Amino acid sequence: MNFTWKSVSSFIQRTIVFTEFCRLKAHGFNRDLVSGEITDGLRYQLIAKLTRLSPKTLYQFKQGDLANRVTQTCSSIEFYFKFFLLPSCSHVLRSIGILIFMVVLNVKLAAISLLLIPMVCWVSY
Hints:
The chain is mainly alpha-helical and about 120 residues long. About 85% of the residues lie in helices and about 0% in strands. α1 runs antiparallel to α4, α2 (about 30-50) runs antiparallel to α4 (about 65-105) and α4 packs across α5.
């Protein structure tokens, strides 16, 4: 198959459209809702554990110290889910989808563009 500028530009346009579609679908879920559900469940488990502790154990800590620890722990876990884990999964799935879509559109152009990735990484770093 001969590559013309028209076929290359059409391939690029389709890839851009698919990329935007994947971006919208990936952000269709609410990160705050997902991470909030996870940390709420964790918070309830921690509070249930604290209520089962003996009074002797609870008197060893200052008032509010245990609540502060639970709050800080849940906040740091929520931060991890919201800003690291969920976006990482989203980016990996989006990249796989883009690669599949590129191969479905045109195998040769996809192979050419994938061969250029190491060169772009080498030049940029």
